[in-house]
């Protein structure tokens, strides 16, 4: 038997082998399988493909096609008694096929975009609010994601200013690196992460997009909703009284199932701003998926849209208004459902103290 | 498969895969025997093509297309059957049904839901529970198997003593026949309009038609679940108490009795002292008052029958870990598993009437034990007239895969023959596939098998639907 490919480390390979002998007991939790019926989306199929790739039982070109159908949502980890990290195995597999000369098409496009300082999602670079560019002294660095819009950045700026926090906004050169890792470009991701780290410097950091939490450049960062909820709890951030009715909150996968779950802060914020938070079908740790993760929307936009449509239906059933705290999720769900609001934008509209 | 035929297939349908590096994922289901062959390093033969129709119309068109070209079809859901029913067949396409995955109308007045065959059962259960309903079907494979697969093999869940087997939940059924036409059994609660034609397809394992949709009975989600553990001195007293309970007319949702070895595994696995006797788990669900009455009556009858009440903790533990053995499969069966290489591991479920069940248990255990290192069993899926016996068995092959396979085959041969001799069925809810095909004639009798073959011949005269499976054609078994 041939030696394992160099980019699939022993621990990942052993985990993939283990998973390929499990009788598919997390299939029900896969949003791609539920939305598309694709057999290559069954987490077992991904385990098997990575295991076979590492053992060189299949070609890199074939493996590349078989490592497309994952959103990185970690839904399959919830029922897994072994805590299998399927997205990590997919990332390793994608890196291995790229090293073997068969990268995913989306990887090449993303690397090219980031090298040119552009968002891999072709989102225009958001404007950074003038009032926030040179705060003195800087209390907080806010990292802007490659799918964040000017509206969301402006809302974050207004919220921090209202709370009296001097925030500095950093827009990475194209990407923080997380999407490059997802697509199998670890070297380019590391470089992007280093570049971002140099620009962030020391001090507390928050990210607007939960996907940026996967970047080496934002290793110590927390999500913006955690930060803002702390300001609300301290009384530094207040909102107008009112009853704005129900809002269905979509838990972003990487917040709800990430290593440090962020489930309550967005709900507390929405409640403080006068909304009645409604949990749609599949919420909190069991949240549904928008299709926005692991570059799935770049790798297979149609399938990602199917995942988003399914999630949109669940949000529709919960309340007429929907919100989330992830720019990727908002983008996907808005495209399929109509408007899905960013939590920050809803909060900014409810401030009692408008910054001067 | 001829290149021209394959090209036409690619041209004619929305999702066709013939790259062997991709179709390899369909080379086996979850029958342990091919998994053992795979573990030994054997390259299993993948299907020549896999077709995944997008919807029912494309499914009907595909089946009709295959009919006119005499191209055989192997239906495939999640690939989690344990008898080889979805193994590929030379010259046939594999038909992946997972894209038929729509959950339709939930009729909350009638208590029914429409569903397509490719839906993973737990995904359907999650959908229903969010709306306050349950399917009540909880086999240990609920997280991974499709509704269509469960129907095709007549599955049973852990709460079947109340909800019935999965086939009992079928109110209406759609199946695509071998010529591509659609059979529809309208959703009605019952009928006396001749034989129940749905039964031609339930348990047919795709040999008589391809299940394309079903209307299933659902229940309001239970408000409470009361589980309790009791300890009987032996299996005989436990089974007798179960009969007494069922003959009152009450139906506990869960009733399970573990033999001494299985009981030792349950307690020992938790690091607890192993008691002498047989653990019994009784569960009642639903309306609090009704469930409380069932649980209380069951407890009284079990205690009067000689059981020691262990309280609710064993029941809680069972519910929390009730699919645990399935999760252990990889640890045990993977190369270099925790019991060493070349482990043979499987389960064998049979059913017997009360008068024969204890002799059947002993006969099967005695027959398979010489070939194995471990044999344990529990009794479950209880009926007024009898129950299922579920054996779990294994043999450590000490790195010798040939020995493991030989032991595995010998155990199955001995176990199935013993079951037949003891008057038990050869299967209760895992089906036949290839594994049990050699025993079907003894199960059904020569005339019975002839009836089944005539039915098959009438519905599928060219033998195109899942050939070699269900004991209908033994010539080409891989």
Give the gist of this structure:
By secondary structure, chain A is an alpha/beta fold. Helix content of chain A is 44%, strand content 8%.
Nearest-integer average pLDDT of chain B:
96
Q: What's the main sheet of chain B like?
A: 7 strands, antiparallel
| Main sheet: strand order of chain A | 2-1-3-4
**Helix count from the secondary structure assignment of chain A:** 16
Number of strands of chain A: 8
Structural shape of chain B: globular
Q: How many alpha or pi helices of chain B?
A: 15
The total domain count of chain A is 3
CATH architecture of the domain at 103-220 in chain B: 2-Layer Sandwich
Structural class of chain B: alpha+beta
What form of chain A results from the Cα inertia axes?
globular
Measured as a percent range, the helix fraction of chain A is: 40-55%
Biggest sheet architecture of chain A: 4 strands, parallel
Radius of gyration of chain B: 22 Å
Structure, explained:
Chain A is built from 16 helices and 8 strands. By secondary structure, chain A is an alpha/beta fold. Chain A has 3 domains: 10-103, no CATH class; 130-230, 3-Layer(aba) Sandwich (Rossmann fold), CATH 3.40.50; 238-348. In chain A, the strands form 2 sheets. Chain A has a 4-stranded parallel β-sheet with strand order 2-1-3-4, with helices on both faces. A 4-stranded parallel β-sheet of chain A has the order 6-5-7-8, with helices on both faces. Chain A is globular, with a radius of gyration of 20 Å. Chain A starts with 9 loop residues before the first helix and ends in an 8-residue tail after the last helix. Chain B is an alpha+beta fold. Among the domains of chain B are: 103-220, Uridine Diphospho-n-acetylenolpyruvylglucosamine Reductase, domain 3; 224-320, Alpha-Beta Plaits, CATH 3.30.70; 324-421, GMP Synthetase, Chain A, domain 3 (2-Layer Sandwich). Chain B has helices at 3-12, 20-23, 32-39, 56-68, 121-130, 147-153, 160-163, 235-246, 260-269, 288-304, 313-320, 324-333, 354-368, 401-421, 440-459; strands spanning 16-17, 50-51, 72-76, 92-96, 103-107, 112-115, 133-134, 170-176, 182-185, 210-217, 219-220, 224-232, 254-258, 278-286, 308-311, 343-353, 374-383, 386-396. Chain B has a 7-stranded antiparallel β-sheet, with helices on both faces. Chain B starts with a helix and ends in a 19-residue tail after the last helix. Mean pLDDT of chain B is 96; it is low at 474-478. The A-B interface holds A 17-29, 33-34, 36-40, 42, 45, 48, 52, 58-59, 62-63, 65-66, 79, 81-82, 281-282 and B 19, 21-22, 24-26, 30, 35, 50, 52, 78-80, 96, 98-101, 118, 120-123, 126-127, 130, 141-144, 323-324, 326-327, 329-331, 333-335.
């Amino acid at each position: 038997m041939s030696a394992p490919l160099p980019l699939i480390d022993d621990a990942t390979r052993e985990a993939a082998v283990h998973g390929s002998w499990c009788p598919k007991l997390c299939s029900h939790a896969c949003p791609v399988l539920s939305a598309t019926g694709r057999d290559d989306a069954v987490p077992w199929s991904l385990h098997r493909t990575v295991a076979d790739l590492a053992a060189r039982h299949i070609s890199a070109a074939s493996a590349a096609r078989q490592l497309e159908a994952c959103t990185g949502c970690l839904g399959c980890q919830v029922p897994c008694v072994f805590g299998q990290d399927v997205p990590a195995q997919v990332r390793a597999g994608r890196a291995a096929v790229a090293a073997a000369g068969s990268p995913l098409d989306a990887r090449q496009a993303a690397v090219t975009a980031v090298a040119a300082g552009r968002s891999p999602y072709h989102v225009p670079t958001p404007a950074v609010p003038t009032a926030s560019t040179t705060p003195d002294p800087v209390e907080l660095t806010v990292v802007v994601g490659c799918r964040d819009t000017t509206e969301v950045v402006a809302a974050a700026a207004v919220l921090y200013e209202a709370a009296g926090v001097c925030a500095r906004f950093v827009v990475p050169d194209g990407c923080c690196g997380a999407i490059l890792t997802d697509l199998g470009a670890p070297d380019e991701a590391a470089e992007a992460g280093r570049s971002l780290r140099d620009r962030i410097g020391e001090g507390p950091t928050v990210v607007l997009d939960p996907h940026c939490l996967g970047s080496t450049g934002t290793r110590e960062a927390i999500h913006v909703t955690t930060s803002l909820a702390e300001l609300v709890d301290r009384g530094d951030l207040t909102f107008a009284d009112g009853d704005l009715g129900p809002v269905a909150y979509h838990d972003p996968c990487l917040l709800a199932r990430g290593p440090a779950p962020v489930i309550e802060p967005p709900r507390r914020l929405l409640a403080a701003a006068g909304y009645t938070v409604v949990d749609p079908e599949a919420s909190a740790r069991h949240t549904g998926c928008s299709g926005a993760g692991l570059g799935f929307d770049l790798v297979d936009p149609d399938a990602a849209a199917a995942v988003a449509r399914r999630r949109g239906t669940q949000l529709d059933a919960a309340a007429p208004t929907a919100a989330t705290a992830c720019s990727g999720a908002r983008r996907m769900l808005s495209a399929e459902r109509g408007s899905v609001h960013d939590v920050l934008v809803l909060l900014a509209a409810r401030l009692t103290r408008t910054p001067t | 498969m001829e290149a021209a035929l394959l090209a036409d297939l690619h041209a004619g349908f929305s999702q066709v895969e013939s790259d062997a590096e991709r179709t390899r994922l369909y080379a086996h289901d979850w029958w342990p025997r091919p998994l053992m062959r795979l573990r030994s390093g054997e390259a299993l033969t993948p299907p020549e093509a896999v077709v995944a129709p997008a919807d029912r119309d494309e499914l009907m068109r595909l089946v009709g297309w295959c009919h006119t070209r005499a191209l055989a079809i192997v239906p495939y859901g999640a690939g989690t059957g344990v008898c080889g029913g979805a193994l590929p067949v030379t010259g046939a396409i594999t038909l992946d049904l997972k894209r038929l995955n729509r959950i339709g109308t939930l009729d909350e007045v009638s208590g029914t839901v429409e569903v397509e065959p490719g839906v993973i059962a737990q995904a359907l259960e999650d959908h229903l529970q969010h709306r306050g309903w349950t399917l009540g079907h909880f086999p240990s494979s609920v997280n991974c198997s499709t509704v269509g697969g469960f129907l095709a093999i007549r599955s049973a869940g852990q709460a079947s003593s109340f909800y019935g087997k999965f086939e009992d939940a079928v109110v209406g059924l759609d199946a695509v026949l071998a010529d591509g036409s659609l059979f529809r059994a309208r959703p009605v609660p019952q009928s006396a309009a001749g034989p129940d034609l749905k039964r031609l397809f339930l348990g047919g394992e795709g040999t008589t038609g391809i299940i394309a949709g079903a209307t299933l009975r659902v229940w309001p989600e239970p408000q409470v679940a009361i589980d309790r553990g009791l300890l009987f001195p032996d299996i005989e007293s436990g089974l007798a108490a179960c009969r007494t309970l069922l003959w009152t007319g009450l139906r506990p949702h869960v009733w399970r009795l573990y033999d001494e070895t299985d009981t030792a595994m349950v307690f020992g696995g938790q690091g607890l002292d192993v008691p002498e006797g047989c653990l019994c788990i009784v569960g009642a669900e639903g309306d609090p008052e009704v469930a409380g009455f069932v649980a209380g009556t069951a407890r009284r009858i079990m205690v009067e029958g000689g059981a020691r009440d262990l309280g609710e903790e064993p029941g809680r533990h069972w519910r929390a870990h009730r699919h645990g053995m399935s999760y252990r499969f990889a640890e045990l069966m993977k190369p270099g598993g925790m019991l060493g290489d070349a482990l043979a591991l499987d389960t064998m479920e049979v059913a017997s009437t009360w008068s024969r069940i204890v002799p059947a248990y002993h006969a099967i255990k005695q027959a398979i034990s010489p070939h194995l290192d471990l044999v344990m069993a529990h009794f479950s899926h209880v009926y007024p007239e009898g129950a299922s016996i579920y054996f779990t068995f294994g043999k450590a092959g000490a790195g010798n895969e040939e020995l493991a396979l030989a032991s595995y085959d010998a155990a199955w041969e001995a176990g199935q023959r013993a079951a037949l001799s003891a008057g038990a069925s050869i299967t209760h809810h895992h089906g036949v596939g290839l594994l049990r095909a050699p025993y079907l004639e003894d199960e059904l009798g020569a005339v019975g098998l002839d009836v089944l073959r005539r039915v098959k011949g009438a519905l599928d005269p060219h033998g195109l639907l899942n050939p070699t499976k269900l004991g209908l054609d033994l010539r080409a078994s891989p």
